[in-house]
Structures are given as C-alpha cells and as structure tokens.
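User: What would this chain look like folded?
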Amino acid sequence: MRRSDREITDFQEIIAVMNRCDVCRLGLVDSSGRPYIVPLSFGLELKGKQISLYFHSANEGKKLDLIRQGSPVCFEMDCAHQPVFQETMCRCTMKYQSVFGDGVLHFVEEAEKAAALRLLTAHYFPDHRFDFSPDRVPGTTVLRLDVIHLSAKQHQ
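Assistant: Here's the prediction, encoded as structure tokens.
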C-alpha cells in the first residue's frame, strides 16, 4: 500500500468498517480478460479471523455465468465519505474508509440458504429476524465468499 499511514491494520477496526458499509462491489473477469463489477447487498459472518461474505442473486445472469466459468474474484466496499475543500490551499480531497480483498466463491447449498439469507438481512435490519418462505428460497442463489486476502485504508 503506497500510503501506509492510511492503512487500517487492526482486525476489529476492519470488521467495524465492513459493518458500516452498505454495498459490496464484486469484481470478476470474463474469458476475454474484460473486468465485470457488480454492486451487491451483503452479509458478513466471522468465525475467529475467517471472514465470509454472503450475497444473494437470481438463479441466472452474467455474474453467475462468470463464477461458473471460474473467474477470479475480488471485492471492495467503502463508507464514511466526506468531501473536503481547503480553500486556502486550493485543494480538494475526500475522507473515506474502505476494505478490499479477494477470496474463493462458493454456491451455498439449499439446506444452508435460509441461514445465509438471515445473515445477509441482519446486516441491514439488525433488530428484525426474517423467516423465509420455503417455496421462495429455491428461487434464490446464495453465494459465500471466503476472504483470503484483506486490506483496508482510511483518510480521516
């Protein structure tokens, strides 16, 4: 990282930043090397220091095609945006916090989908428990990204 003074190294602070984010951008690559980025709602599961991100999707589409083709995957999320204009220095900057990394994507098995969807909805509605209709769950693809590499930075 070029600006090591902005790096967030404390694991719990990285998790706190992730919990403040409301969108996770998933980056994939098609067979011709062309990048594809899609913004997604997400849920976060923490087991020790292993982070897993959960996403939901329709059962078909470009994102799933690329995943099935074995595309490498990365992610990025950011929050706490605040533009700053310093008139005396004639300079603009942006305050922010961001987390990015890569990992391995898995399709969540049918038996585990409802629990994964609860993790996802808990990120946005922490005080509400959702019960998913058993006839609706099969119509949803659920993905789990097990994070392998992780970096975070901020400008505050």
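The chain has a mean pLDDT of 91. If you want, I can go into more detail on any region.
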